[in-house]
Specification:
By secondary structure, the chain is an alpha/beta fold. The protein is built from nine helices and eight strands.
């Protein structure tokens, strides 16, 4: 992509790689906020100083004194599959020199889930000492469990739990095989992980709502009900 300098007319602005992008300033940059806003506006972007980040932002200018809760929220957005480009002072200086190619992001904001072990830890199903937390719930059971699917389906069905080999809008809980869980913990991916990511990315949900459990924990819990 050809590097672009500050545009002088509307025709050049139409070619700007920043056109239509939303920019949020968190904290203070070395340049005055007004100068930064004018720069992005001249390139067809909407830029505003803010104390709150949203999933509709393309770029976040992260400066000194940025609110800690909003810095944490950037990580929360990533958890749910939204990845605004974080720009610090050095990158902003580079952009204001007209170097945009390294920082290009598409205009269309789309979810792109990167399933991690952190998702498992944060969304992990905790089995209580009493009751059936899975009663009438819809479970996704992958094909790589060491327990044959038919056998596992029967065990779940005996306790009023529904199991499927696919993920859709009715899926509540995702079962991870022990092998998939080990791969997730090591930062690796496999077919099951890619299936989960694809199903979430293509869904209308804006938050990762699934509860996760492991095959061995599920089997151990079912054993207590026998």
């Amino acid at each position: 992509m050809q590097e672009l300098s500050l545009f002088q007319d509307d025709e050049l602005m139409q070619c700007s790689p920043l056109k239509g992008r939303n920019v949020c300033i968190l904290g203070s940059m070395r340049q005055p906020a007004r100068k930064v806003q004018q720069f992005f506006a001249a390139h067809g972007a909407e830029c505003r100083a803010s104390t709150k980040v949203s999933r509709n932002v393309h770029y976040i200018l992260l400066g000194d004194g940025a609110p800690a809760d909003q810095v944490e929220y950037i990580r929360t957005l990533g958890f749910h599959g939204y990845h605004p480009r974080v720009i610090r002072q050095k990158e902003l200086d580079d952009m204001m020199q007209g170097h945009f190619s390294p920082y290009f992001v598409p205009e269309a904001i789309a979810k792109e889930l990167h399933l991690s072990y952190g998702h498992y830890e944060r969304s992990h199903l905790v089995y209580g000492d009493a009751g059936n937390p899975l009663y009438t719930r819809e479970l996704f059971v992958p094909s790589d469990t060491r327990t044959p699917q038919d056998e596992l389906y029967q065990k779940l069905g005996d306790h009023g739990i529904y199991a499927n080999s696919y993920i859709d809008d009715t899926t509540d809980v995702i079962v991870l095989s022990d092998l998939t869980l080990e791969r997730l913990k090591a930062g690796q991916t496999d077919a099951t992980i890619r299936t989960i990511e694809k199903a979430y990315d293509e869904s209308r949900s804006q938050t990762f709502r699934f509860v996760l459990t492991s095959e061995h924990e599920l089997l151990e819990w079912l054993q207590t009900l026998s």
